[in-house]
Amino acid sequence: MIVGFVAYGLPGPQGSKRFVGRSATGRGIMVESSAKVKPWRQDVRFSALQAAEAAALAGPIEGPLRVSMTFTLPKPASAPKRRTTWPDRKPDLSKLIRSTEDAITDAGLWRDDARVVECIAAKRYPNEGADALDRPGVVVKVWRVDLPEFDL
């Protein structure tokens, strides 16, 4: 593994953009439809910057990358308390991945999320399953595909 980190916060899915009008120059103005994205991306960006500093990375990670993301979501009050349940409702896993990859790109951990050629992702409730946190957030692990070690 090249770098790994944990970001705490409420995972926000990268939603659709919606058109709200035109600027004075005539350009279209698009806004994010989900209010949860901005704070989530800030949480991930901050944690990614700390991880890059701790790993003493000289710059963005280059080459083809393999990423693992385990999102811990708040367990609904209606869910059973004494058995493992699965977060099979919103938010959409692929949209969580998109917002998280964009935040990691903003942090400069990699130059572009197009470098990711393999992604292993999961949604969990607190303390239920591998890499599940005790509160909402994400566990991120990044490897170079061409390096021999691959330890999940």
Order of helices and strands: EEEHEHEE
User: In angstroms, what separates the terminal alpha carbons?
Assistant: 9 Å
How helix-rich are the residues, as a percent range? Answer: 10-25%
- Main sheet: which strands, in order across? 1-6-4-5
Give the uncertain stretches in residue-range form: none
Would you count the extended β strands for me?
6
Number of helices, where a helix is a run of at least 4 consecutive DSSP H or I residues: 2
Largest sheet features: 4 strands, mixed
Taken from the alpha-carbon principal axes, the silhouette is globular
The structure class reads alpha+beta
Mean pLDDT: 88
Q: Radius of gyration from the CA trace?
A: 17 Å
What percent of residues are in strands?
25-35%
Characterize the structure shown.
Helix content is 22%, strand content 28%. It has helices at 37-54, 93-107; strands spanning 3-8, 17-22, 28-32, 65-72, 116-124, 137-144. The termini are close together. With 152 residues, it is of the alpha+beta class. The relative contact order is 0.28. α2 (93-107) links the parallel β4 and β5. The strands form two sheets. It has a four-stranded mixed β-sheet, with helices on one face. A two-stranded antiparallel ribbon has the order 2-3.
